[in-house]
């Protein structure tokens, strides 16, 4: 496309006749279609399967059948140190004051996050202790817990140490100690139950059940649907969640808790809120029932709480009905393990199945994706810097040459050659192409971050969701128009035998912008910017 030569400021014959806008429109449309096809064939689409087997709720009353009447105790707290393998954590133990006999004990297993006992499970631990159950909230071990690396089997061993500490507590019946696991803890507690038959019971609150990668895709899909994003945005789900993330790690994304659930023989209380869009609330309960049945365990109680979110909170507070049911179920064991109703509460709704995420075909390596974008953007950014440096050098050389070429009085004037330049109209089109492509990539990233924030906050904003996506796509179309106009300009210069660009630096810079922009356009197509339709 670009070939050496010197700048020619003369108007081209083609320009005097004018160009056809219809050809620009047709070429732009063709370019968009080509990019749309590339984007479609380069990776998987997102087409979740509707859930066809809704769970049958027996009654809206969540009360636990056979649960004893709850007493109210004062609560005393103390802090203990739990020794782990190579580390130690602090834990707070909440004890009912005035117990007549050793009580059941509950160890809390954290969800995702830092998990300090001073801030975690405060309402739950106090409610259990006030009803006659000793509650222990340990800090989460953080030296082996990062965003990239998590070992749920090892984490189970760490929480087992807290279980052993609670079993030795003077106010606790060691044969009645169980665990309360929330969210991410739902991948840990079944491991503990499978490896410690002495564990008396398991409470799974907002448990993901399916592997983390599947749960993440399910949650993103639910959040995006709640936010009202255009259909084209959903293509990003399998391509982002299915690829290996940049920098490595995240091996736990495919952790399967199923083998451990199939070894759980303890009574299990499964709890979900119907306002929790992040978890497969129907599928999760059904799978736990099926898995435990394989171990010969039919003692599974399921409760759904109307409007409760991921933490079983309604309007910011943990549901009091849930806390009462939880205490009654624990205190009434073993009788409450099999009491009726087995499945009760508000009717949950799960529209789609949480299923394995399609793996990207080409851009499955996050390091490759990030590296490709970085290199392409770097080519575009460095090109004008290189040209600017070349112009500075040329200007210095020109001044030096003029000083040295002062002619004698009777000598003809020296011929000063003009430095190599881009052909007429080439440089601005290159600038628009490169700058527009980088701007579109930045706009896409900003848009996805804004949508993610709305989704996580369960909010809708059509100006951001619909307007932002329209803006990103219009920027993408503008870049294609710039590419078409650049190609037409180069073609006209070639037909007129006029130079396109002069000098090695400008040739390299021009190709850098063209190649970098082409790569980024393909990346944008991959993420759905040029997808045909809404």
In short:
Helices cover 45% and strands 12% of the residues. The strands form two sheets. Strands 1-2-4-3-5-6-7-8-11 form a nine-stranded mixed sheet, sandwiched between helices.
Task: Write a structural description.
The protein starts with 12 loop residues before the first helix and ends in an 8-residue tail after the last helix. The protein has 14 helices and eleven strands. The chain has a nine-stranded mixed sheet with strand order 1-2-4-3-5-6-7-8-11, sandwiched between helices. The protein has helices at 13-17, 21-41, 122-130, 152-167, 189-195, 212-227, 236-241, 258-261, 281-294, 320-332, 366-404, 426-456, 462-495, 504-526, and strands spanning 75-84, 87-96, 103-109, 134-138, 172-182, 202-205, 268-273, 300-305, 313-314, 317-318, 343-345. The radius of gyration is 33 Å and the shape is elongated. With 534 residues, it is an alpha/beta fold.
The biggest beta sheet, please?
9 strands, mixed
Percent of sequence in beta strands: 5-15%
Average of pLDDT? 89
User: What global shape is seen?
Assistant: elongated
Q: How would you spell out the order of helices and strands?
A: HHEEEHEHEHEHHHEHEEEHEHHHH
Segments where pLDDT lies below 50 for 5+ residues?
A: 1-11, 13-18
Structural class: alpha/beta
Q: How many strand segments?
A: 11
Task: Draw up the topology in text.
Elements (H helix, E strand, L loop, with lengths): L12 H5 L3 H21 L33 E10 L2 E10 L6 E7 L12 H9 L3 E5 L13 H16 L4 E11 L6 H7 L6 E4 L6 H16 L8 H6 L16 H4 L6 E6 L7 H14 L5 E6 L7 E2 L2 E2 L1 H13 L10 E3 L20 H39 L21 H31 L5 H34 L8 H23 L8
Parallel strand pairs: 3-4, 3-5, 5-6, 6-7, 7-8, 8-11
Antiparallel strand pairs: 1-2, 2-4, 9-10
Helix pairs in contact: 2-13, 2-14, 6-12, 11-12, 11-14, 12-13, 12-14
